[in-house]
Amino acid sequence: MFRFAPYVLKGLWRHRSRTLLTVSGSAVALFVFCVVGAVQQGLARLTQDQQALRTLIVFQENRFCPASSKLPEDYVRTVSKLPGVKDVVPIKVFTNNCRASLDVVVFNGIPPEKLRSARNLTLLSGNWSDFDTRTDAAIVGQAVAQRRRLKVGQRFTIGEVSVSVVGVFRSHVPAEENYLYTHLDFLQRARGKSSVGTVTQLEVHLNDDADPDRLASEIDAQFKRGPVATSTRSKGVFQRDTLADLAELIGFAHWLGYACVGLVLALVATTTVMAVQDRIKEHAVLQTLGLRPGRIFRIVLAESLLQSLAGGLLGIGMGLALLAWGRFAIGAEGVTIAFRPSLDLAITGAIVSAVVGVLAGIVPGWQAARTEIVVALRQA
Amino acid sequence: MALVEIRQLTRQFRKGDEVIMPLQEVNLEIQRGDFVSLMGASGSGKSTLLNAIAGIDRPTSGAIVVSGTDITKLSRGALADWRAANIGYIFQMHNLIPVLTAYENIELPLLLLSMSAAERHKRVEIALDAVNLRDRANHYPRQLSGGQEQRVGIARAIVANPTIIVGDEPTGDLDADTTEQILDLVQRLNSELGMTLLLVTHDPRVAALAPRQLRLEKGKLIEKGREVTVVHAELQHRSA
Predict the structure, then answer these.
(1) Å from B222 to nearest chain A CA?
(2) Chain A residues near residue B87 by CB distance under 8 angstroms
(3) What is the DSSP string of A80-129?
(4) CB contact under 8 A, A290 and B85
(5) pLDDT tens digits, A118-170
(6) Buried (b) or exposed (e) across A21-59, using 16+ Cβ within 10 A?
(7) Residues A319, A313: Cα–Cα separation, whole Å
(8) What Rg do the C-alpha atoms of chain B give, in angstroms?
(9) Most A CBs within 10 Å: which of B83, B99, B138, as the mutation test of the A interface?
């Protein structure tokens, strides 16, 4: 097969405008496929990873936006005593925008001594001692730092909240890199907040043998008659519920991904059919020289595959580069979905391109292979 | 034993309600080293016979035995392999692959044979020398004259050292001077290299170069004014 590689490559080069247009179309489609895939992976990471399943979020009942959930901070003590609970982290959430946004800024106020045990963060710049000692200190996820061009030593103000950036961190959980962490009491006392003694939510970390559903029911039962009733869900479910509207959109967007695949299929198939129709006589000559119909079929398939794969890899490359560079995230009500490039996505995209390339070549390849030599040779 | 034995070859086409039969129980033997020309009016069936011998068209009935192989019984794939090893085809319109250089066009048939790159290179060089086109090896068909293109076509036909070379009006698209050069080349293939040739032509001057001249008339093959009627010993035996 490789002996005919020059013929295949030169054939594509002969009609370079057509090839280029096909490759471009395939690239754009796979670019969109990749970005849509990244959004879906981001949502799946939030709702399905192990940490999301083994952690509970206690929120005020019938409240949705972080600004409206006000739980008494002393709920921490009550929840901590429940069997199966490893740790309870009170969190005050402040966000510049409760609605869906591509540039949402989310402050999480956490007791500094709990931050390092509850989150696996690695400082890329700055230091922890500054965070521990300065009450207005904030460490910033690298995604939001890049988007907002934040560096250690800068002050950063959103609404009534003004913090000093003392560190930039990365996390193995991409969504975390869209948050800013401050001291809990700082965020509670921030001008205009006056919410000392209340928190937005409790993050409950469970022992390995604890039953999350049972504990969630126990917590809600505990506070049913309390000053503030709660709604407790696993972190995954909480995030899925919070992002329900976005999740619907994202669910719909996966059809966009399939549409892109269909587009590439139609595009590459059309180009390949045109290429075959242009060369009916040429294929007859090749058969006269002794090429088997199967080899003609494989040559056409190779042309189709190359175009699809070249465009696909280009589109995947552009998509992953954009995702890596842009560190995009979409957030709503204090929860963000990070769009990250991944090897999975690259491999899936490459496989989709290859499969589409092969599928697109089957019919034209079959036509070329079944060419009646004498009839085709008579063509002008 | 003849190199090519054609027995009771019939080819018929259907054109609407009409049945056309350009070949009617044609018999022919071609010996190794023969140079045969085949003439006939347009539509007489000369190209049909040539294509059947070349294995690119299937007869309606009859047998075509080349070097002991009845090619009418071969599958499509096996027939392609057989063509690669046994047939050198010279087209009227050259039919070079436009994206390949002269060298690559000549090399094409060799890519189908089990052969090292060095051996391929050697054979292509020899073929280029034979058609006196070594200096045009890296030219594309569009950069060659009609005569040069046909010489590349001839080089492509002879490079794999086929059992038989067939040509369908190989000078039909060339001017008089170039025709002379091509005919000289074709003659040398037979006289110097001993290649077996079957040329279809409508030009009596071209046909006259061949020691053996055939003519197709009304579906019958005529040689020296008489219908060619070769009766194979095996067929005689069967009929007895």
Answers:
(1) 24
(2) 288, 290
(3) HTSTTEEEEEEEEEEES-SS-BTT--EEEEE-HHHHHHH--EEEEEE-HH
(4) yes
(5) 888 999 999 899 999 998 999 999 988 988 889 999 999 887 788 999 999 99
(6) ebbebbbbbbbbbbbbbbbbbbbebbbebeebebbbbbb
(7) 10
(8) 18
(9) B99
